[in-house]
Write a structure and sequence with these properties.
Helix content: over 70%
Shape: elongated
Number of strands: 2
Number of domains: 2
CATH class of the largest domain: Mainly Alpha
CATH architecture of the largest domain: Alpha Horseshoe
Distance between the termini: 43 Å
Order of helices and strands: EHHEHHHHHHHHHHHH
Strand order of the largest sheet: 1-2
Strand content: under 5%
Structural class: mainly alpha
CATH topology of the largest domain: Leucine-rich Repeat Variant
Length: 243
């Protein structure tokens, strides 16, 4: 199957979905999204373009129902569209977007659901609305579903990489540390990813919490390994940029 890389081609497929929505309603739109877009190989930036267009064309009070319909299709690309639609709703529907992201990730049966939605919703929210998002992340760090915890890691990774301010990075890192003793593979991958990124961009925070990180009763070796990798990457990029 060829990969769709041209916006002009995607626009044609998307217009079929918009027309179906205007003529027959939301269910017809979901069906066309499945046929025209989600069953093709389309690069993520173009799927994000589709999501932004849908956010503009679908009635506000029907957007969550659209996400629900897309979620039932269980496609990788559908998570990109869901993530961006919820992201676009954060400003005016913050809590609902966080709650829906949690609902969708809790239903995950594969890693990419968590990573795609986690970056686009939790990560974007943390970067742009840290005061509102950090309490939500702290609360969700106690969630019973490992997929939700993995998605939090993806979100923290995104926000740190995109420039979350140092003070809030330090606060969020303590939440990561609270999960640093888990044995669950999915949580380890998400939280470890975030820890590695934090270390690369803010090694001084790692130094600040060095004693906590070295506490072998509360922090597992896998977390320390991720921190070590992050420090190696920080050193590598620092040397490269100094040339």
């Amino acid at each position: 199957m060829s990969v769709v890389t041209r916006k002009s081609e995607v626009k044609k497929y998307l217009q079929c979905c918009i027309s179906a929505y205007q003529e027959k309603g939301l269910s017809a739109c979901v069906l066309e999204l499945s046929n025209q877009i989600l069953n093709r190989k389309i690069k993520f930036p173009l799927l994000e373009f589709c999501a932004h267009q849908l956010s503009e064309r679908i009635k506000v009070n029907e957007q969550v129902a659209l996400c629900d319909g897309i979620e039932t299709l269980k496609t990788e690309g559908g998570n990109v569209i869901i993530g961006i639609i919820l992201q676009n709703r954060l400003e005016n529907h913050f809590q609902q977007s966080i709650d829906k992201a949690t609902e969708y990730t809790s239903k995950a049966d594969i890693w990419y659901v968590c990573d795609i939605i986690g970056e686009r919703v939790y990560g974007f929210a943390l970067l742009h609305y840290p005061d509102r998002t950090i309490p939500e992340i702290r609360k969700l760090s106690y969630h019973s579903k490992n997929w939700v915890l993995r998605s939090l890691g993806a979100g923290v990774h995104y926000a740190v990489r995109k420039g979350l301010d140092k003070q809030n990075v330090g606060i969020v890192f303590l939440i990561l540390l609270s999960l640093a003793n888990t044995k669950d593979k999915e949580i380890r991958q998400g939280i470890g990813w975030a820890a590695k990124t934090t270390t690369r961009f803010h090694p001084d925070i790692i130094e600040q919490y060095h004693a906590d990180i070295q506490n072998q009763e509360k922090v597992a070796n896998w977390f320390r390994r991720k921190v070590a990798i992050g420090l190696e990457r920080h050193t590598y990029y620092a040397k490269r940029n100094s040339r």
